[in-house]
Each structure stands twice: as C-alpha cells, then as structure tokens.
Write a structure and sequence with these properties.
heterodimer; A: 88 residues; mainly alpha; 3 helices; 85% helix; 0% strand; flat; B: 115 residues; 70% helix
Chain lengths: 88, 115
C-alpha cells in the first residue's frame, strides 16, 4: 500500500532525524548529547517500523529490535561511565 | 476500514513523536528534556507499531510486540541512568520555578509560591 499519509509521515520523520542530528552536534553538555543520540535511535526505529510494515518485510523489524537493544546498552554504559568513572 | 485505522494511527504516532522531539530540543533543562524525550518518542513508536499491527500478518505482529516490549522496558532504564548521571554531576536545574527536593540545592532559588 502506498498512501499519501505514509509518504508524508516518512518525510516528516526524516526531518526529525535531521533535527536530532543537529541537536547532537549543537548540544551544550555531554548528557544532553547522550539523550539526543538515544532519541535519534528511537526515531530511526520508528522509520524502520513504518517502512517494514508497509513493505511486508520482516528483516527490517529484526534490524529495528537490535538497534533498540544496542542503543539502550550504549546509553546506559555511557551515562554510568560519565557519572561514576566505572561501568559495573 | 483497516486502511483508515492505519492512517489514523500513523498520524497520531507521528504527531506524538514530533511533540517529543520538539520538547527534547526546546526544554531549558536536562531533566525536563529527559521528561519530554523519554515519554513522547516511546509513545510515538508504540502507536506506529499498533498501526503496523492493524494491517499485517502474524510474523510481523509478533516482531512488533517484541519490539514494543523491549522499548517500553529499555527506555525508562536508560533515561533514569542519564538523569542519575546528571544528578551526580551536579547539573543545574535552570527551569523557572524548579525545586530540588533532595536537599542538594541544584535549583537556583526558592520560588515565591512555596508554602
């Protein structure tokens, strides 16, 4: 299915990806940068979900799942290392 | 009917997610930015997954359920880790009228409306 809503939503999500990249570059503190990277990954997961469900392709959903897991692990490790100097 | 529900869910999810991203770039403070990003974007992704579940077959539905469960479990943990790191690094609260109830005096001053 190829509807107008799908096209507009995909373009708008790409704009939001650009906004998140701009926030990653321009952030004043390191923790805001980590938060912007986390949000960037979630928006990317949303793009993958929308594309996979409209194209009936399951492998994009596997990629989205792994991307969400890796983003979670990276954010937690970076935040703990930044605050305490050690990870575990 | 299913196409109509799909379109409505996609519009709703995109609007909620753009509200989350807008709050993430416009809020004045680290803590309020976490508050905007961790709720709005996750709810947007969940609504888009519901939109995908409406018009798909069983393999895609099961993968979407797993993805939503993982995101709903993972994002509060990572947001709490970022907020805890900011608190331990003494990141200031610059929101007008903010109160630090933990006693570390991270907010600027006592607001006038405190009882």
């Amino acid at each position: 299915m190829h509807s107008l809503v799908y096209d507009i939503a995909l373009v708008w999500m790409t704009v939001m990806l650009g906004v998140c990249v701009l926030e990653v570059v321009k952030a004043k503190s390191l923790l805001v940068r980590m938060l912007a990277l986390d949000t960037l990954t979630l928006v990317l997961v949303a793009v993958l979900v929308l594309y996979a469900t409209t194209q009936d392709a399951t492998y994009f959903l596997d990629a989205a799942l792994i991307l969400a897991l890796v983003s979670f692990l990276g954010t937690v490790v970076a935040a703990r290392y930044h605050s305490e100097g050690k990870i575990a | 009917m299913r196409a109509f529900i799909f379109d409505a869910m996609v519009i709703l999810g995109t609007v909620v997610m753009s509200l989350g991203v807008f709050g993430m770039i416009r809020m004045p403070d680290l803590y309020t930015r976490i508050h905007a990003a961790s709720k709005g974007v996750v709810l947007g992704v969940a609504l888009l997954a519901v939109a995908g579940m409406v018009r798909s077959e069983w393999p895609i539905i099961m993968r979407l359920l797993l993805l939503v469960a993982v995101i709903l479990l993972a994002t509060p943990v990572s947001s709490a880790a970022i907020g805890r790191a900011g608190y331990l690094q003494h990141e200031r609260m610059t929101t007008p009228g903010a109160i630090d109830e933990s006693g570390s005096h991270l907010a600027d001053e006592d607001p006038a409306w405190r009882i």
